[in-house]
Automatic annotation (TrEMBL):
The lineage of its organism: Eukaryota, Metazoa, Chordata, Craniata, Vertebrata. SUPFAM superfamilies: Purine and uridine phosphorylases. This is Uridine phosphorylase. It comes from Chanos chanos (Milkfish). It holds the Pfam family PNP_UDP_1. Pathway: Pyrimidine metabolism; UMP biosynthesis via salvage pathway; uracil from uridine (phosphorylase route): step 1/1. It catalyses: uridine + phosphate = alpha-D-ribose 1-phosphate + uracil.
Length: 314
């Protein structure tokens, strides 16, 4: 069956430039008396979303709940906000699906691993931003990844999020039909982040394409999963082809993140640190303290960006 091409033809994307606030793209929401954001344990009837979230300007998302709590505490210190970092509480504590922390104008949310998990989170996040009447919000995915020809610890700011065939698109099956959405990210935001990286010592950063897969093992060409149907040479050949297509890292959420943000007029960027060079191996054997420092790098970069935008730095 031929896929249906959506926003690359523009029909889902009218007004991307002109309208400063168009988040949700769903006419059915208008007729709903209440919207229950089930996986956040929030609702339009039980929570005053504009009061709770109306001042949000930056949303940072990442796979792990602990990382996103640590990021909230880090940003709290970086912005010199009042109060004790230990008092920052999980807004979604009534559910263990996702964790969410609000620190001034910054929201930090975990999304779990893989496209289905982040996709559910993004549906509810985008509705939340819309219900809260937020404007001019920037979204960042701050994650980890496998590097393709890069030294471990390099931060990759995604130019294009591509699928396993190196195509800059995300395919979603809707009512038994394949819908294809573009995964282009905001170029200016990526450039601004690269500029920020140049202002921070010891933060090796590149812009490159990010391949998003639906699996960590076979799907990323690993030889060390429970199943493997290819040779070492076939693995390396695939990585070489990916590198030729501009791919510099591999992770598991960027395509749907880029596609959903684009359709909903949200400026977004993906920044993932590489934990290893996939040409050199598959196992993540780097010592824990080094991995922790690596994971902190995208956080430092986004923090610098936020501080610049808020006028803390010149
Ligand atoms: O570090 P996070 O944000 O979890 O992202 C990466 O790490 C996970 C795999 O270990 C996948 O979710 C991948 O995208
Ligand atoms: O190799 C890696 C490392 C982190 N995350 C991934 O998805 N792949």
């Amino acid at each position: 069956m031929a896929p249906i091409l959506l926003n690359s033809m523009g029909n889902e994307h009218n007004g991307y430039i002109e309208q400063e606030k168009v988040y949700v793209k769903n006419p059915h929401l208008d007729s709903m008396e209440e919207d229950i954001l089930y996986h956040f344990n929030l609702s339009t009837k039980t929570h005053n979303l504009p009061e709770m979230f109306g001042d949000i300007k930056f949303v940072c998302v990442g796979g792990s709940a602990n990382r996103m709590k640590a990021f909230a505490q880090f940003i709290h210190q970086e912005l010199n906000l009042q109060g004790n970092v230990d008092d920052i509480r999980d807004i979604c504590e009534g559910t263990d699906r996702y964790s969410m922390y609000k620190v001034g104008p910054v929201l930090s949310i975990s999304h779990g691993m893989g496209v289905p998990s982040i996709s559910i989170m993004l549906h509810e996040l985008i509705k939340l931003l819309d219900h809260a009447r937020c404007r001019d919000v920037n979204l960042f995915r701050i994650g980890t990844s496998g590097g393709v020809g890069l030294a471990p610890g390099t931060v990759v700011i995604t130019d294009k999020a591509v699928d396993s065939f190196f195509r800059p698109q995300f395919e979603q099956v809707v009512l038994g039909k394949v819908i294809v959405r573009s995964t282009e990210l905001d170029e200016e935001l990526a450039r601004d982040l690269l500029q920020c990286s140049a202002e921070i010592p010891n933060l090796p950063t590149v812009i490159g394409n990010t391949m998003c897969t639906h699996d960590f093992y076979e799907g990323q060409g690993r030889l060390d999963g429970a199943l493997c149907s290819f040779s070492t040479e076939e693995k390396l050949e695939y990585l070489r082809k990916a590198h030729e297509a501009g791919v510099r890292n591999i992770e598991m959420e960027s395509t749907v993140f880029a596609a959903m943000c684009r359709v909903c007029n949200l400026k977004a960027a993906v920044l993932c640190v590489t934990l290893l060079n996939r040409f050199e191996g598959d196992q993540i054997s780097t010592p824990h303290d080094v991995l922790v420092e690596y994971q902190h790098r995208p956080q430092r970069l986004v923090s610098h960006f936020i501080k610049k935008r808020l006028g803390y730095l010149s």
